[in-house]
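User: Hey, my collaborator sent me this sequence without any context and asked if I could get a structure. I don't really work with proteins. Can you help?
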Amino acid sequence: MNPECQVLVCGLGDSGCAAAEALLDAGVRVTAVDRDTGEALAARTRRLADSGARVVLGAGPLPGGRFDRCVVSPGLAWDSPWLTDLRARGVPLQSELEYGWTLRRSRTVAITGSNGKSTAVKWLVETLAAGGHSALACGNYGRPMTAAARTEPPPEWLVAEVSSFQ
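Assistant: No problem. I've predicted the 3D structure and written it out in C-alpha cell form, which is a compact way to encode the shape of the chain:
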C-alpha cells in the first residue's frame, strides 16, 4: 500500500485496533476514531498513537480532510451517520473482515448463516486440529480477521465466523 495513503479506521474495538496496527505496520497514515471516551479504550489506543496514528476518542462528526479509504469495524452499522458522511465524500468503505482477508496467507473457510455459526467454527477448528492441521478461529468468533491473518507463523487454516452484515 502506498505510504502516502491516508486511511480512516472507524471503531476501535479489537477489530479496529487490529486493522489500525496492520495499516501502521504497512507504513500507511492512519486516523482512528471511536465515539467512546473510556479509560480502558484510551489505554488500549495509546499504542496506536505512539506508533503514529492520529487517534480521536469521543468523536462526534468525523474529522475533515482527505481519506483514500475507510476500514470499518464490525460493530458500526452501515447506515450510521459516519458511513453516510464518508459515502457522500466518495470515500471507499472496506470492512475489517475484508481488509484482514487481503492479508491472509492461510486457507480460509467462512461460516455464515442465522444460527450455529460459532458452534460450527469451534467444531471445525477442533476437527482440523484433531486431523493434525493448525487452525485458528477468527471473525466474529475468536480473533479479529486482521489479527488472525497476521499470526506468525501463519496457521494452515483460518476459520471465520462471518455475520450477514459483513
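In plain terms: DSSP finds six helices and eight strands in the chain. You can pass these C-alpha cells on to your collaborator as they are.
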